[in-house]
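User: Hi! I'm working on a homework problem where we have to compare a predicted structure to a textbook description. Could you give me the structure for the chain below?
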Amino acid sequence: MSGERGATVKLRKLGEGVYLAPGSPNTVIAVSGEEVLVVDPGIGEGRGDALAAAIKGLAGGDAGIHIALTHGHTDHLAEAPRLAAGFESTGIHAPRLCVGLVEDTRLRRSLVYGGLVSGGLASMPMVSLRVDEPFEPGARLSLGSKAIGVPGHTPGSSVIVFEEAGVAAVGDAVLGERVLARFGIPFASDLRSWTESLGAILELVEAGYTIVPGHGPVARGGRARGLLEANRRASERVYAYVLRILRDHGPISLDRLAYMATRDLGEAEATPRQVLLNRTALSSVLAWLEEEGKVEAVVTDEGPAWRARGIL
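Assistant: Happy to help. Predicted structure tokens:
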């Protein structure tokens, strides 16, 4: 199905009334009569128009749509305005702890990059949305869906669960194996919480749900369990790497650590943007290790640095 600007989405049925519009990120669409819930419209020229065309094919041109976000990052929300423009009745729903990220691009860039960066360096469209209905973990949303809190990727990251269809849109609480291999370091504002949140998603898998990651393959059963284990191993690898580097080379600054980890752990080029993204995740790992008493912060002539405890 095509949009006004030439993009095409081919819907795949996941369960009764629930469809996948593949992409990076994936979009989940639930339809009941003329009521529609779209989870994470995504990013990309023409995607919003293509999603609107697909929805009109399912529910008609008079459909009322709700847009729910698993979290407040640009790649999950950028095409929401184009999608909404195709309908008279729309509303934006976002986790309460992500409302600021959705509504303010400066706050979003500050959290993602560990400090405000330019729009050019962020390399994302500067799209902001007004949130009509913030929701808390456990909240009931439209079309019988439910929000489950999975903090870590962002403080408010949530899974949107469609209980009758047995489908869970997990956003970036789970990443595909190709993403893990390419970037090496799972992006999270709090990698410790991100890792712990995998347990809540495993409960859904054990209950028979199909999980839809934002960036990765749709999976269920053994395939989904393997995907969750790959995510856990990726986190453990980063944790072990940071501790080893601090023991072998500390004291070391966060910037130096971010460059080394980008170089050593993933396939992606160590661009300024990628190093800054990884720095955010690694800052949370340092906090994790410091809370466990395994590392400590010191001041050097190059500024703040970290070392393993007991290393003089």
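For your comparison, note the following. The chain has two domains: 12-236, 245-308. The chain has eleven helices and 13 strands. Good luck with the assignment!
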